[in-house]
Amino acid sequence: MNKLKLLSNPSHHQADVWLVEENGLRMVYKDFRKKGFIGRFIVNREASFYRRLRGIKGVPEYYGSPSSGSLLIEYIEGESIKKYKNLSSVFFEKLSRLMDEIHSRGVLYFDLRHMSNLLVLPSAVAGGEEPFLLDYGTSLYSPLLVKALKFVDDGAELYIKQRVSPELLSAPETMRVKKMNRLSGIWFFNKLAGGD
Ligand SMILES: Nc1ncnc2c1ncn2[C@@H]1O[C@H](COP(=O)(O)OP(=O)(O)O)[C@@H](O)[C@H]1O
Ligand SMILES: [Mg+2]
Of the four listed, 92, 121, 161, 176, which is most buried by Cβ atoms within 10 Å? Predict the structure, then answer.
């Protein structure tokens, strides 16, 4: 496995995320072993989410874990949604379907307000852009709680829509985002729903 490029920001105390290449296939290698037991636990837990969400369009494919505390996934040649403005309603319909599919497998994502976790795969065709969701370190598997707590993910989806394509929000949606943003000013809610 050849390491091509470091994708994570080394100044954050996070996992090392590398673009790697093996037998002509480019992949992403995430390794948190330097953080010892806790780091291994976090990445192994994340790997379990990639396994659970296998086959969903918009979730990078999981290739396996070369060792405990590391994982290999599909490389998405896209950029963070932070870099985008005025994406079409078609894109947000895709994002909404992606979140629904994740929820239907009993998973709450919980980290959507961090826009670096949502990549956009570009397209030459308008509306052809595809959303890809990364980083399942703070997700929760709990089919029983999905109904009660999916409002956190739904609210984050609206927050992103407001940041990227505010013209697409209906009046009630704008009110909801404003309410959520006010709540996230409160410390506890900020921990749960704070954004970039
Ligand atoms: N599958 C991937 N394809 C392309 N880029 C990726 C992929 N996984 C991670 N990255 C890049 O690496 C960064 C850090 O990865 P992430 O899984 O979010 O780790 P962290 O826990 O450090 O936030 C992402 O914000 C993204 O820019
Ligand atoms: Mg991240």
Answer: 161
